[in-house]
Design brief:
Helices cover 41% and strands 14% of the residues. It is an alpha/beta fold. The strands form four sheets. The protein has a seven-stranded parallel β-sheet, sandwiched between helices. The longest helix has 22 residues, at 92-113. It starts with 9 loop residues before the first strand and ends in a 12-residue tail after the last helix.
Length: 343
């Protein structure tokens, strides 16, 4: 048994220097867990911030089985959040090393050290451009890029272990946002300064998850008895459209929603050329096909299974979450300060 004599839960979090993993690690700490983070650079600013919050640091990379083994020793829970996301300056093999092979390392370490629970963070992107609205956990897989394919490959390893009785759960998040994240900063900035352009109709479905709700789902997946052996989509109660998201952001910022629309096909062609030109040189291109897919791929999911089986309940509506995110962007100097009339 990996509990200490006090019965304290002890969790190792991969990806804790990132946005979601950092929120998760700090929330677990606040809930009484002893938290350990596997970090590549213990001297980095994000790692220092974790240590200042009382989180133990273990140096290592999720691509290294021995590092995951060291981090897992003496723990009760593993939350595997780390992933390589969408950057074109990595070869495809690196995506599979991190997003697929690391899952095998996690499961082997969990079995060796007798961990009580493992939560593997996948992505709703394994479903790709969904035709079924809203999609469920049973909707067909349709990964559209190397990130989604490698995440699906990792998830399949986790599900094989689940089928063999391992105490594992899989979570597929929808688009995670909130204070501390900069993935949606460009959207906020361009809407604020009037340079945002909608490519295509904007009627495509889009599904967000405020980070606190995401963390709630991850912890429930790691604690609730009914979560073992299950896969859960985690997201907001409702989905919107790109047009709806843009209107909500504009309202949050106190600006007029943009109306200009441009055809998406030329943008996709430019992104394709840009990627092929940059990839041989290891350069992350300024325009990705994956970024263009933001305007073209439907993302709308049901979270009913998580609500029914493990009591998941989203608490932060989109308008509130966007307001909190905008406030943080302003505090960081990324956006203009709110005018008194907009406050």
């Amino acid at each position: 048994m990996s509990d200490d004599q006090s019965g304290q839960k002890r969790a190792v979090v991969t990806g804790a220097t990132g946005f979601t993993g950092g929120h998760l690690a700090r929330t677990l700490k606040s809930r009484g867990y002893a938290v350990r983070a596997l970090v590549r650079d213990p001297d980095g600013a994000s790692a220092h911030a974790l240590a200042a919050d009382g989180i133990e640091l273990i140096k290592g990379d999720v691509g290294d089985a021995s590092a995951i083994d060291r981090a897992s020793e003496g723990q009760t829970h593993m939350f595997h959040i780390a992933a390589v996301y969408r950057s074109a300056n990595h070869p495809d093999s690196y995506y599979f090393q991190i997003n697929r092979d690391s899952v095998s390392h996690v499961l082997a370490a969990a079995e060796k050290h007798g961990l009580e629970r493992v939560v593997h963070c996948s992505t709703c992107g394994v479903h790709g451009d969904v035709a079924e609205i809203p999609a469920t956990e049973e909707t067909a897989f349709n990964p559209g890029d190397v990130y989604q394919r490698s995440k699906l490959a990792g998830e399949e390893i986790a599900k094989k272990a689940m089928a063999e009785g391992a105490p594992v759960s899989v979570v597929r998040p929808t688009g995670i946002y909130g204070p501390g994240d900069d993935r949606f900063l460009k959207l906020f900035r361009t809407i604020e300064n009037g340079t945002f352009r909608m490519f295509g109709s904007g009627d495509i479905a889009y599904h967000m998850t405020y980070v606190d709700d995401m963390v709630q789902g991850l912890i429930l997946a790691g604690e609730h008895p009914a979560a073992i052996g299950e896969v859960f989509l985690i997201g907001d109660d409702t989905y919107t459209t790109l047009n709806g998201l843009v209107r909500e952001v504009a309202q949050t910022l106190g600006v007029t929603p943009p109306t200009l629309r441009l055809p998406v096909a030329p943008l996709m062609a430019a992104a394709t050329v840009c990627e092929f030109a940059c990839k041989p040189f290891g350069i992350d291109p300024p325009l990705h096909r994956r970024r263009v897919s933001f305007f073209t791929k439907a993302r709308a999911f049901s979270v009913d299974k998580a609500k029914r089986l493990i009591g998941f309940q989203p608490n932060v509506p989109l308008a509130d979450g966007l307001a909190r995110t905008a406030d943080w962007y302003r505090e960081q100097g990324y956006l203009k300060k709110a005018s008194p009339s907009a406050a």
